[in-house]
């Protein structure tokens, strides 16, 4: 049985795998988004996206209600002649997916309450012909 943290990252990876290059998206991921960690030098198929859970905070409220705030790291990798442009397009597409799925079903009958982008960073072209980017998310859900 998957934990909530694992289920959330798997659900996000599944949503990212819907990127097939059709409007409004420009990137085709070719079903290459995964709920695990890989670094750019371990990747052999591009573009690729890897989604992993990070730290989590809890907010305990009256009535035995608790919010969980899960930080999720989304690593995006591309390779090509224009890696920065390809990476920026991929990051924009991933952000569109996140915005369209702020309330995300991650297990039968269980959904997130909110998913927010907290930061986006790139390698700024230093790894050409590769491009490496990272989107950090904060996922709020009821425990």
**Would you count the extended β strands for me?**
7
Cα-atom radius of gyration: 16 Å
Largest sheet: 5 strands, mixed
* Span between termini: 16 Å
Task: Output the number of helix runs.
Answer: 2
Mean pLDDT across the residues is 95
How would you describe this structure to a colleague?
It is built from two helices and seven strands. The chain is α+β, with helices and mostly antiparallel strands. It has a single domain, classed as 2-Layer Sandwich (STM4215-like). The strands form two sheets. A five-stranded mixed beta sheet has the order 1-2-3-7-6. The chain has a two-stranded antiparallel ribbon with strand order 4-5. The two termini are 16 Å apart.
Helix-strand layout with pairing:
Blueprint: H1 4-16, E1 33-34, E2 48-61, E3 65-79, H2 83-100, E4 105-107, E5 110-111, E6 114-122, E7 130-142
Parallel strand pairs: 1-2
Antiparallel strand pairs: 2-3, 3-7, 4-5, 6-7
What are the key terms here?
single chain; about 140 residues; alpha+beta; five-stranded mixed β-sheet; two-stranded antiparallel ribbon; 2 helices; about 40% strand
Provide a quick synopsis of the model:
The chain is built from two helices and seven strands, in the order αβββαββββ. It has 143 residues and is an alpha+beta fold. Strand 6 and strand 7 form a beta hairpin.
